[in-house]
Amino acid sequence: MMRLRRFMGLGLSLYFGITQAVSCGNVTISSAADAAEIRSTCTIISGDLDFTYDFNNTINLDGVEEIQGGIYHSGCRAFPETSDCPSPSPFSISSSTLTTVKGTVSLKFFNGLKELRFPNLTTVEGSITLLHLYDLKRLDITKLSRVGGILLEAPNMTTLEHESLKSFTNNAGSVSLWAAAVDSVDSFFNYPLEIAEDASDSQSFIDVYELPNLRHINIGWPRVKQVTIKGDNLGVTLGTENTTSIDIGTLSLIGNITDLDQGDVVTNLTVGQLIVKDNFDMTHLNVSFDQLSTLEINQCDGLKTLQVPPKAIDWEDFGLHIRSCLNLNLSSEYHINSDGENEKSWYWPNNITLINIDYAPTANEFFKSFLERYNETNSKIPKVLQRFSVNPALVLDFNCAPFDELNKTGVLAEYYTCYNTVDLMASLAASHEPWVFGSLFLAIAVLAFSHI
Q: In angstroms, rounded to a whole number, what is the distance separating the alpha carbons of residues 41 and 33?
């Protein structure tokens, strides 16, 4: 049975023949009959709208225009892998008149909910959390433009109706898309919404995970603290047609991201830290940023070439981490481009804090301009302040002698390690010597036995 508290305005308005908004207090809906009563009596809900634990009816809340509290439901914890929860028939919840929610929207484990339609909802002052909605197929929030934040996990949702997110109600506004089956989420990220003066002041973040039908994503927010995108066969573009400047604190690309591009009208692209990890599809990474402080590439066996722009020499406090990229060609500062021409693709920044290359094919020619710069007489180039470590894959010849000299003169950091490939090969041979002799003895024994 519905539980609601109404104000005296209804009786007075009927007595005087005045048409006005009718306000109800906290409302709990347990059936379609409850929803029908709310439609006929409530224009404004001054408290919260709650759905009971086992609610499973199709309802329409046309007539309700504003909820001054929040919308809540938390049902039986039905996980796809294992669940003792009942499986209700599919149902939907809708309202074409609802425009504002001043609290939060939190719907969790709403089992059986197939469609959620609030097409004219423009503002949610708090956050929207749609979590563990495994039956949801359609979400209509067409006019939603202002919200405190969004968290969505609906792995079977194939239809998203939404025009554009244009602002947050706080400085920490964020969008987290943890699971969905839609093929586009650009409506959340296309508009150059203002969050803070710069990325360091913003507490906002973007998380995009487990969207298997998504093939491209465009990020148009001018300032954001952290962007994490995990996907497969997914391209990423920083900047949209309305964005000229982008400032990202940390950009993490995890999984098989196919390419990273810059928007056509973007004139300034600043990233504090770029992390590319666990990628086997991307073959060429072009980091065409105006400013980058840290480049970290980890376990990207598909990557063959790496490119930075000439303006990389002005990147400040730069740190380079490359680890376990067995096909990345660091043989020189040049690579053969798509036109078959030898093109310079690596420029060492003047201000370097850290270099760490571990298990990637590396040759001295990759450090050519680096060595020339630091070997110049009376050079005023800053030191490599924190760490210098090169442990190359055993593919190319690498000689530590010129770096040893720089280390002796104090140019390189106190934390200094460097391994010659010749020494590594010798060490490897020595460590495997008993195994080699053992294998040889076994082969001789087998051969002798076969002739008995």
A: 13
